[in-house]
Every structure is written in C-alpha cells, then in structure tokens.
Amino acid sequence: MATCKLYRGTVPQIIPPGEWTLVSFEKTVSNDRSMARNLSLIVPPTTAEFLWARNLRWSAIDIPDGDVRPRQIMSRFVRDPAGIHDDTGADDRTATPGRSWQTVAWPFVGQAGMPVGLEVWHDHHLPWGLEHAQFAATTPDY
After folding, report:
1. How far is the CA of 1 from the CAs of 27, 75, 114, in angstroms?
2. What pLDDT does 63 receive?
3. Considering only Cβ atoms within 10 Å of each terminal Cβ, which end of the chain, N or C, has fewer?
C-alpha cells in the first residue's frame, strides 16, 4: 500500500475566472515512494491502479445586489498537465453565497512517471479564493 497526500490550508490560492488553474499545495502530508512533485503533482513510480481523491473548499463570495446569475465551480484530475493534458473525474457544482465544498474520489490507472495534478475552474465575475485543498492518491499495488 502506498499513499501520497498534498495539503493546502493556510493561504488561499486565488483562482481567476474562466480558466482552468493547477492547484498548488503548501505541504506534503504523506509521500510513500516519493510520489509528490513540486507541491502540485503526484507522480507514480510504476504503473498501478489508484484511487485518487480531492477535497476543496472555496471561500465565501459576495454577490452584487440584483445579480441572480448562477455561479459554477468545477474541478478535475489532469494527467500530464504540462504535456498531453488528459483529464478525468471532472465534477461541477452550483456555487453558493457561502463557502462551497467539493469532495470527489475517482479510480484510474496511474502511469509510471506521468504526473497527475488537480485543476479548478469557476465562472464568478471576480477572482475567487480556494481556501483549502487536499489531493491524495493511494494504491494497494505496491
């Protein structure tokens, strides 16, 4: 069994509207087989079946008076974000005026040496803070 878990929870990452953004993390909580890279990516050392998981908390937003437009938040796992940019396990939610949470798990094969990251997107009219994020991968294969 091997697990890698990245954590963000002190300083919000500001996410611009309308563009997919790679989440960066503040620390590594666990790093079996040295899978964590650059506090943004998890890189399996050998090909294996993984359960990938993410937990996100978006900061509370202010909506201008009279603005009834629904806001959407999205997240996804992305394989090789600087290369082929293959995504999977996407999730979207309607954002609320208070804090918004997303927790998602998705099983897919981690390829040896191929980095996997976590990207987020929103359509609020202003940049929005991602207050908390956890990104984990676990495999029973080694």
Report:
1. 21, 26, 19
2. 80
3. N
